[in-house]
Amino acid sequence: MIDRSQQPPLHDLKEFNLPSPQGVELPNSVKLWILDVGDVDVTRVDLVFNAGCHQQSQFLQALFTNRMLREGTKSLNRAQIAEQLDLHGAWMEQNVSFEHSYITLYTLNKHLAPTINLLSQMVKQPIFDVQALEVVKQNNLQRHLIAMQQPSTQARRLFQHIVYGSQHILGQMAEATDYDNLNVDLLKEYYQLWYNSNNLTIYLSGRITDYCIDLIRQTFGEPFGKGEKGGANYQGIIPLQSRRQEFKEMRGTAQSSVLIGKSTIDLHHPDYHQLRVLVTLLGGYFGSRLMTTVREEKGLTYGIYALLNPSPYDNTLMILSDCDPKFVQPLLAETYHQIDILQNELVGAEELMLVRNSMKGELLRSYDSCLSLSDVWIYLHTLALPDDYFHQFWQTINTITASDLQRLACVYLNKDTLTEVVAGEKMS
């Protein structure tokens, strides 16, 4: 019998290896990636088109083209599509990034045939109904207008504009008028250019049988569409910025939003994995330096976070927090003080071990499901990263030293290169 009064021994996981997908080519040359790793009869299907914001001729064109695929086909209207998904216990997500558009279907294997057929109709036979577009536009416009009243939204938009400028895709942001400028013809134009079999990659994960693969081959194995093949439009890294401080007044807001950051190294840089550890130590988890001092010890905010926001072009390093306007200056002072400490003092062994364990635990939690493994390979393939990318990251977490962190802090957290933005009431 197990002695439950004794804690089981702890073991450190030395390696982090993920199952690799099997790649096959459909008759129309579409690449199909298969991850047969499921223990229940559930399948995730991802359609990834090389068609993102960078390929659009007008703001929101890519997003709304993708969104309208579920608003009606030649044989089904919006309500019937929703009814079919509910009837078969299926779930669908749609997303657009800078370079890609995604359609993700989660379905039970016993209902795979009708749900795959529904997915096929949405992709191949959308009608882009005028009235449906107006409803979608109004719903999204209202969300946009509500978001624009938030200091956090205004701070991020001002930050992106300062760091990247209006000519770079990372500095370009939609306005309310852009919703009015959308019309069915624009969406059809984008759809006809980019939604075609030459521009498609498919991912299957879960319990994948020959029947699943045959269904995909039958449904998406024939050529469709006559548009172009998309490609990456990477713009490279923005030169390091000189220090700038900007304030955007927003009257009547209960809190101010603070954002400190910069454009920094891309995912392929040799320092990138180590920089992720440094950013996590600074503000990337609940026990981080900033959370411990700014939130717990000084009580200046409910939360403060540091992160690296990746894109195909570079990464944006950001420190974000919301606080009472009267606490803005103390919050900024303590944030820079913690950066100074990282630049001038070595991190202790106990704290470094805590960060390591937190990061490894988060990595394991993120990819502990057969369905979440698709996210790994879509991420690697769309960003042109090596297959052992996460293995390298795991090794970096295990081997990084306090001296490495101090060097990185001096190089990448140089206060003379950080942009500081505050949005909210005037600071007292």
Task: Explain how this protein is built.
The chain has 428 residues and is of the alpha+beta class. It is built from 15 helices and 11 strands. The chain has helices at residues 61-67, 78-87, 112-124, 130-148, 151-164, 176-180, 184-194, 210-220, 272-283, 289-297, 328-344, 349-366, 373-382, 389-399, 402-412, and strands at 22-25, 31-36, 42-49, 91-96, 101-108, 200-206, 244-249, 256-264, 304-310, 315-323, 419-424. Strands 1-2-6-3-5-4 form a 6-stranded mixed beta sheet, with helices on both faces. Helix 11 crosses helix 15 (402-412). The chain is globular and about 65 Å long. It starts with 21 loop residues before the first strand and ends with a strand. The mean pLDDT is 92.
Q: What share of residues are in beta strands? A: 15-25%
Question: What is the structural class?
Answer: alpha+beta
Number of helices in the DSSP assignment: 15
Number of strands: 11
Main sheet overview: 6 strands, mixed
Give, in spatial order, the strands making up the sheet with the most strands.
Answer: 1-2-6-3-5-4
**Rough shape?**
globular
Average pLDDT across residues?
92
Sequence stretches where pLDDT stays below 50 over 5 or more residues: none
* Secondary-structure element pattern, one letter each: EEEHHEEHHHHHEHEEHHEEHHHHHE
